């Protein structure tokens, strides 16, 4: 039988403890329902200098049963559990999505991925685009995700799971190892020339005007290194902590909406994927100021789009997602009232969570219950601002809100529709 060294066994024990850590808080909700917490590790991924991880992991560890999710937090760590700073491994994004998987009747029967049913959020992008339940990027360590009482994100309701299926979860991790790269900002903004790619991950040629973005830094691509640089590969994990409570009648469910400032508003021929002509584009390019370095706009790129809210309700939580160069994002109502503004925090040091020059947090909105409401059919305006002191590729301007139909179980929603 193979035997491990003392340090090897100790390291394995540390990882097992991280994976199977399950703790329960002592702080009860108003109905006596205790918050539960579990911390898990993603499947391991190995990165060397300049390399990229961007893949989906299905059937990840996740709490089971009819529950209300209260928060989801994550960070990249090494085998010893040490947090990895962004200037070594840049966390472009992670997203968690829910789906239904067909149960097999016997050990000989096989289930196929095509049998899976995607269970996304409430919108508003086309098809499966941006339909995750949770998702952040470099800002993940200092961005609050807690859903306040008495609200929760309902999952595991047996009456809503299709017959013959079970609820599962998928995790996507997009991480870029920037150790020893020739141009760190260019690599994490996925500039195509630094990755020496001319086709996307499906082999489709890139548009001539496409300078950088997700189509150039897909899984297993390699960013250009400083000549002669050598570095070791590292085994990494996304460590994620989920908090929840058991579902009961005192909890008010919230709906998840994700808006994209690149949304064209068009939905052509039932398109369900990203295309230049239809729907949410996910990313865009910010061009630099004129030669003098100062533009009439104060060297700020301001992008806006109009969105229609499919259902009404009360805003419980809001936060934006931006990349380096971002200066803030605001969601406005039809009457130009501010629904939520979310501003980035930039790091000032070297340690994980405070990396200089990187967005390490986004401010969040927790409106007083009942104070911010959106009507069904209301036209919203999403605004995203970036600095134009230099060019930025593959930037994002997303906005995530949680909406409840009612403030409390005793108060029904009464909203005026916008025609």
Automatic annotation (TrEMBL):
Keyword vocabulary terms for this entry: Signal
Pfam families assigned to the protein according to its UniProt record, in alphabetical order: SURNod19 (PF07712)
Organism of origin: Hevea brasiliensis (Para rubber tree)
Classification via InterPro entries: Stress_up-reg_Nod19
Name of the protein this chain belongs to: Stress up-regulated Nod 19 protein
Signal sequence residues: 1-25
Keyword Hydrolase on entry: no
Tagged with keyword Signal: yes
Domain of life: Eukaryota
């Amino acid at each position: 039988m193979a035997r491990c060294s003392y340090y090897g066994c100790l390291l394995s024990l540390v990882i097992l403890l991280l994976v199977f850590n399950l703790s329960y808080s002592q702080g009860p909700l108003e109905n006596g329902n205790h918050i539960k917490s579990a911390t898990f590790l993603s499947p391991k991924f190995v990165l060397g200098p300049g390399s990229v991880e961007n893949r989906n992991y299905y059937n990840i560890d996740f709490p089971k049963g009819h529950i209300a999710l209260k928060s989801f937090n994550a960070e990249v760590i090494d085998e010893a559990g040490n947090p990895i700073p962004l200037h070594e491994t840049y966390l472009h994004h992670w997203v968690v999505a829910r789906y239904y998987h067909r149960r097999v009747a016997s050990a000989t029967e096989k289930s196929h991925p095509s049998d899976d049913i995607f269970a996304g959020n409430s919108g508003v992008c086309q098809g499966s685009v941006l339909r995750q339940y949770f998702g952040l990027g470099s800002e993940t360590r200092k961005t609050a995700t807690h859903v306040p009482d008495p609200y929760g994100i309902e999952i595991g309701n047996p009456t809503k799971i299709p017959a013959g299926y079970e609820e599962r979860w998928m995790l996507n991790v997009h991480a870029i190892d920037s150790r020893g790269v020739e141009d760190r900002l260019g690599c994490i903004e996925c500039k195509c020339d630094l990755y020496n790619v001319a086709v996307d991950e499906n082999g489709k040629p890139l548009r001539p005007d496409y300078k950088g973005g997700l189509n150039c830094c897909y899984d297993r691509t390699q960013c250009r290194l400083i000549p002669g640089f050598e570095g070791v590969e590292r085994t990494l994990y996304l460590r994620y902590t989920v908090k929840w409570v058991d579902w009961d009648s005192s909890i008010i469910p919230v709906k998840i909406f994700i808006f994209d400032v690149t949304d064209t508003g068009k939905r052509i021929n039932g398109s369900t994927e990203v295309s230049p002509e239809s729907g949410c584009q996910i990313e865009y390019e910010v061009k630099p100021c004129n030669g003098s370095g100062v533009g009439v706009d104060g060297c700020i790129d301001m992008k806006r789009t109009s969105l229609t809210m499919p259902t009404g309700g009360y805003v419980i939580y809001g936060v934006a997602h931006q990349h380096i160069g971002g200066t803030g994002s605001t969601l406005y109502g039809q009457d130009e009232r501010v629904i939520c503004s979310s501003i980035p925090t930039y790091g000032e040091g070297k340690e994980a969570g405070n990396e200089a020059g990187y967005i390490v947090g986004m401010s969040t909105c927790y409106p007083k219950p009942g104070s911010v409401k959106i009507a069904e059919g209301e036209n919203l305006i999403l605004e995203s601002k970036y600095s134009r002191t230099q060019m930025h590729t593959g930037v994002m301007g997303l906005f995530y809100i949680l909406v409840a139909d009612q403030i409390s179980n005793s108060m029904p929603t009464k909203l005026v529709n916008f025609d």
